[in-house]
Amino acid sequence: MGPAALLLLLPSLLLLFLLIRALLELIPVSRLDKRSVLITGCDSGFGFDLALRCLGAGMRVFAGCLTQTGIQSLKKSAQEKGIALELLEPIELDVTSDESVAKALEFVERKLGPGKGLHALVNNAGISGNESWDDWLIPKDYEDVFQVNTLGTIRVTHAFKRLVKRERESRIVIMASSCGRVALPTLGPYSVSKFAVEAYADIIRTELILFGVKVAVIEPGFFRTPITNLDRGNAILEKIWARLPEITKQEYGPNFYKFCQNYLLFFLNPTRLNPPEMVVDAYWHAISSAWPRRRRQVGLDMHFFYWPVSMLCAEFQDLFFLLSTFIFRIPTPIGCSQRWHSPLAKSH
User: Fold this and answer.
1) 145-297-101-55 Cα dihedral, nearest 10 degrees
2) How many C-beta atoms surround the C-beta of residue 229 within 10 A?
3) Are residues 170 and 118 in contact, defined by beta-carbon separation less than 8 angstroms?
4) What is the mean pLDDT of residues 122-151?
5) Which end of the chain is more exposed for a tag (fewer CB within 10 A), N or C?
6) Distance from first CA to last CA of the chain, Å, rounded?
7) What Gene3D superfamilies does the database record attribute to this sequence (predicted)?
8) Is the confidence at residue 120, as pLDDT, over 50?
9) Which pLDDT score is estimated for 18?
């Protein structure tokens, strides 16, 4: 086969693969109304909306909420939508606590009955934690986010995995992120936790093939959720700046802090964020399709920026960041400009 024929064959094979995958993904799971799902992080956001979507489809939903307020809010919304509350099994669940997860497992097993299992486990619970430059953070900032996003996912999966194994066509769904593909400046703790989640998903996906259990990863960009609330972001930034040692404040300077405030105003503008329904749709596909996609990217920013950038070598990724310093006019930290000629824009 000549080079020209090979160049034609490879795109054809790729298109054939994509077509077959798309057709397989359209095949639905049978009798969803007879199946059960456990979802963590149902107090608000994606988990809250997904629980209502599953209830509306007639599924039995074990909804893990961190607080009683979240449980009551979910019940109220279900009632307002005319959903039968007997399908909703709310659980007060803290994914960072072994004791809480063990109690939740006991509750679910008792409600399911002997020999019954879960069609799907959705690891949705997550936090963004403190977000800022690594120089401004402390190890506990990383630990707090890792406890929820990574160890919380592992803890819940370990506890409920055997219930998922009991059912045919079952699956574990894991919330990752664009930050699990591209580690973004100022999002260190969150990015570290999501890179670890991506690795864990790869591990259990290959291991659970032996049991016929599928693992689906959702990789969203940035969406309108409580995590991306501007007031919350400003409050975190103020708290972090206030606790900084004076030597670090002097190293960066007040202009740099002012830039961070303005950058939040731009970056967390609701008009620039994707609508949350896109993630709920991706979750629902992972639950309801007989052939869920192993990794699904969600959001325009994920498809057209984060995912392509993640395919680049480190040198080109660094170039993107360097260009962004000019686009966003990132000021040079005072300490940096005193030591060497920075490629960043000068501080005003």
Assistant:
1) 130
2) 13
3) yes
4) 97
5) N
6) 62
7) NAD(P)-binding Rossmann-like Domain
8) yes
9) 80
CA pair distance 205, 213, nearest whole angstrom: 8
**Cα distances (Å, whole numbers) of residue 55 to 84, 134, 160, 276, 326:** 8, 42, 20, 18, 48
- Please, where are the H alpha helices in 209-340? 230-243, 246-252, 254-267, 277-288, 300-301, 307-310, 314-327, 334-339
H helices of 168-253, where?
188-207, 230-243, 246-252
Question: Percentages helix, strand, coil for the chain, rounded to the nearest 5?
Answer: 60, 10, 30
Q: What is the per-residue DSSP string for 106-127?
A: HHHHHHH-TT---SEEEE----
Alpha carbon distance 296, 171 (integer Å):
15
Does 124 score more than 90 pLDDT?
A: yes
Distance of CA 74 to the CA centre of its chain: 21
Report the pLDDT value the prediction gives residue 7, as an integer from 0 to 100. 72
Radius of gyration of the chain (CA): 22
Look at residue 330 and tell me whether its pLDDT is greater than 90: no
Please tell me which residue in 190, 200, 252, 283 is annotated as part of the active site.
190
pLDDT given at position 10: 77
Question: What six digits make up the tokens of 211?
Answer: 């049991």
Tokens of 108: 């679910």
Q: Give the H or E element holding residue 78.
A: helix 68-80
Q: Which of 74 and 2 is assigned the larger pLDDT?
A: 74
Task: Tell me how far apart the alpha carbons of residues 274 and 256 are, in angstroms, rounded to a whole number.
Answer: 28
38, 122 Cβ separation under 8 angstroms: yes
Q: Are 233 and 264 in contact (CB under 8 A)?
A: yes
Q: Which residues pair with 289 in a beta bridge?
A: 28
Phi, psi of 81, deg, nearest 5: -90, 5
How many other CB atoms sit within 10 Å of the CB of residue 239? 11
The first and second tokens of residue 110, run together, are 């008792």
The residues with which 214 forms a beta bridge, in sequence order, are: 171
How large is the average pLDDT for residues 52-78? 97
- For residues 202 and 205, what is the distance between their CA atoms, to the nearest angstrom? 5
**Does position 343 have pLDDT exceeding 70, yes or no?**
no
The amino acid present at 26, given as its one-letter code, is L
